[in-house]
């Protein structure tokens, strides 16, 4: 009778089977996530159980959390997956939640001494925190504080450099939080982007200007097209004036030689009589002549460009701890592309925005000046944050900040360098 009833009501039976299968899969996924959280908390508990001298204060960790990241889900993700690990590790954790865009920059100006800075959010949160940090008067001291990154945003470009790929969101967040406790760090380059009037903005990934970036910003407007929304955004972008060309003038300097890394151990302080002798000698000696280290006009290379997109990116994605030169990659893409190529390349750039297609001009530079014609419209994409397109000077700050990374990623980078 049961089989007959199921056969006679096959539509309801099919719907019930699908609902039970989905419910079972959802419950099993929740169970696996709880096991991952429990294992991560047990590993963090081992750090918290370590004995420290009574005279040694607890390490202070300041967390900058953007609750609006990932469509407002970042706060819940942090409290479920990252916060228990940090509190069990024995750190003195202070969580600072931002309420509006740009608040993190202002909060960094008022931040007191801390041992760790942790960024919980996406690319925009990272860009705000490092900009506020490097705008401080005492940035030379604060830039030495190690920074942790917990990827909670929709776009987390930096996580590809710091942590192994993972399809499970809970595992990705817990791995990133545990990497902060393990203490392994890597130095990352920073771009200083300065306009004529505004204060400088800092980025760890790239500056993009062009048609692919403009079309990529509009992808979310075509959400109703599902998997075709990316191609639709680039296809409708071709209805504008074609070919889309961006005119500019570029001046740049070549790569610079990497100086030796400063030793972490401070040298011992000389005796008192040696210090007094040095101060007296410095006081009575004549003032030293300043050596001009300014770059001469002959050192600059000048280039007139017409491109569909220009990108200036750091080498953080292709991290190499043993290279002898410091430079950023400038990719000038050809302005002659068909509409079909534009749609296909645009879809590829949504997954990897730093791809430099065949036929593009690639330049390695340590510093550049981008001059735009008067009346230029459009926007820059600086670490996926939108800024008005104005003439700017971009300067590479090599190995400026140290970020916590997974020990496996550091070993992988070192092993690739040896090979």
Task: Put the structure in a nutshell.
The protein has 419 residues and is an alpha+beta fold.
Would you write up a description of this structure?
One of its GO terms (molecular function) is ATP binding. Its main location: mitochondrion. One of its GO terms (biological process) is sphingosine biosynthetic process. It is an enzyme of class 2 (transferase). Residues 56-197 form the DAGKc domain. With 419 residues, this protein is an alpha+beta fold. It folds into 2 domains: 14-48 and 56-183, Probable inorganic polyphosphate/atp-NAD kinase, domain 1 (Rossmann fold, 3-Layer(aba) Sandwich); 206-259 and 298-400, Tumour Suppressor Smad4 (Sandwich). The chain contains 14 helices and 18 strands. It has helices at 2-8, 10-48, 69-72, 74-88, 103-110, 123-134, 139-142, 159-162, 169-182, 211-217, 229-237, 272-284, 339-351, 407-418; strands at 60-65, 92-97, 116-121, 147-151, 185-194, 201-203, 206-210, 246-253, 256-257, 301-307, 309-313, 325-326, 328-332, 361-365, 367-371, 379-382, 385-388, 392-404. The strands form 4 sheets. The chain has a 6-stranded antiparallel β-sheet with strand order 6-5-18-15-8-10. A 6-stranded antiparallel β-sheet has the order 14-13-11-7-16-17. The protein has a 4-stranded parallel β-sheet with strand order 2-1-3-4, with helices on both faces. Helix 4 packs parallel to helix 9 (169-182). The longest helix is centred in the first third of the chain and has 39 residues, at 10-48. The model is unreliable at 288-293 (pLDDT under 50).
């Amino acid at each position: 009778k049961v089989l007959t009833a199921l056969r006679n009501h096959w539509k309801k039976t099919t719907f019930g089977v699908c609902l039970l299968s989905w419910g079972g899969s959802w419950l099993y996924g929740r169970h696996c996530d709880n096991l991952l959280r429990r294992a991560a908390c047990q590993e963090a508990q081992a750090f918290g159980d370590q004995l420290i001298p009574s005279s040694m204060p607890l390490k202070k960790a300041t967390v900058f959390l953007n609750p609006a990241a990932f469509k407002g889900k970042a706060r819940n993700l942090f409290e479920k997956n990252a916060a228990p690990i940090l509190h069990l590790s024995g750190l003195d954790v202070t969580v600072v939640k931002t309420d509006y865009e740009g608040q993190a920059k202002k909060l960094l100006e008022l931040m007191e001494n801390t041992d760790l800075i942790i960024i919980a959010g996406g690319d925009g949160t990272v860009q705000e925190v490092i900009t506020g940090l490097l705008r401080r008067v005492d940035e030379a001291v604060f830039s030495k504080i190690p920074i942790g990154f917990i990827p909670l945003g929709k776009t987390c470009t930096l996580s590809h450099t710091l942590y192994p790929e993972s399809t499970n969101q809970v595992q990705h967040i817990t791995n990133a939080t545990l990497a902060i406790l393990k203490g392994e760090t890597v130095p990352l380059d920073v771009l200083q982007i300065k306009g004529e009037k505004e204060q400088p903005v800092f980025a760890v990934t790239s500056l993009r200007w062009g048609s692919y970036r403009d079309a990529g910003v509009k992808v979310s407007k075509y959400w109703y097209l599902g998997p075709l929304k990316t191609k639709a955004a680039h296809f409708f972008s071709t209805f504008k004036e074609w070919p889309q060309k961006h005119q500019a003038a570029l001046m740049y300097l070549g790569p610079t030689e990497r100086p030796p890394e400063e030793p972490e151990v401070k040298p011992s302080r000389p005796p008192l009589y040696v210090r007094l002798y040095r101060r007296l000698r410095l006081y009575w000696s004549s003032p030293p002549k300043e050596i001009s280290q300014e770059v001469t006009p002959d050192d600059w290379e000048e280039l007139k460009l017409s491109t569909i997109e220009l990108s200036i990116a750091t080498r953080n994605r292709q991290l190499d701890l043993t290279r002898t030169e410091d430079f950023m990659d400038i990719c000038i893409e050809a302005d002659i592309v068909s509409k079909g190529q534009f749609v296909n390349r645009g879809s590829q750039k949504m997954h990897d925005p730093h791809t430099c297609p065949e036929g593009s001009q690639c330049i390695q530079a340590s510093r550049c000046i981008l001059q735009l014609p008067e009346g230029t419209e459009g926007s820059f994409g600086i670490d996926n944050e939108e800024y008005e397109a104005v003439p700017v000077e971009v300067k590479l700050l090599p190995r400026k900040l140290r970020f916590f990374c997974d020990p496996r990623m550091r070993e992988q980078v070192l092993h690739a360098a040896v090979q």
